[in-house]
Amino acid sequence: MSGASFDEIRELYWFDKEIKQILLDGILNAEHHLKFIAAYRFAEISQNEKYGYLNIGNYDHEKLNYDWKLISKLSQILSSNCKYNNNTIYHNIHTHNDVPIWVLVDFFDFGTLRAFIRDLPHSVQNKIAVDCIGFIQDNVPGFDSAFPVEIMNSFIKNIHETRNICAHNKHLLKFECRSDVTYCRGRD
């Protein structure tokens, strides 16, 4: 920043910080909503199946390599939390011999959530995308279009990257998301 004063640099720093806080707040709200939509839709396909999220048959068979990594990650979440009696995983394992998906999603980081949704069968991803439309309409004025799965997954990837920029205090200004699927609003 040739020729910039210390005050200008400081103001740019505070501006970047404030924008990241606002974005992170919105992203955390969307993440919470997305976790519970995904859990609800997954529960529909694995009704009454204990630990159904550890069953590879509940995921997209074309993503088998990803599925194994996801199942391993979910198993790690369970095993690392089952020994501490101050959380819901411990309670559900020791009381019900099962941890429902809506309990487990609370322990997902955004990357795990993204992988979970990406690995679900296309029909389930489509239901999640449809469920997201109401949330988007409530938070994006003028949104009135469809939300295809490919666009949803692209958005989730971009939100994940932006979340990490904000959460880890990296520079947001001039950051460009890597996912290149573009949302095009319907023509009027």
Automatic annotation (TrEMBL):
<dbReference type="Pfam" id="PF07751">
    <property type="entry name" value="Abi_2"/>
</dbReference>
<dbReference type="InterPro" id="IPR011664">
    <property type="entry name" value="Abi_system_AbiD/AbiF-like"/>
</dbReference>
<protein>
    <submittedName>
        <fullName>Abortive infection bacteriophage resistance protein</fullName>
    </submittedName>
</protein>
